[in-house]
Amino acid sequence: SSPLLIRPEGCTWGMPQYSVKEEFRPVISEIPAPVVPQVVTVPQPGPSIPQATVTYSAPLVNTVPQEP
Fold first, then answer.
1. Which of 5, 20, 22, 37 is 20 to 30 A away from residue 49, measured at CA?
2. Is this structure's pTM higher than 0.70?
């Protein structure tokens, strides 16, 4: 089996694989991560009125496919 993490020669662990002079381009997986909308109900003070609802999507997490 091959190692899950490969350290390029001359790089230390945790060191980005791009130089400071290069423009940073995040690696985006070809497989989109599922986005699950989450609903948060915010209670309103005072007489009984309709509840305010805030809807937002979970953050998109990018993964790097592993080569076998």
1. 37
2. no
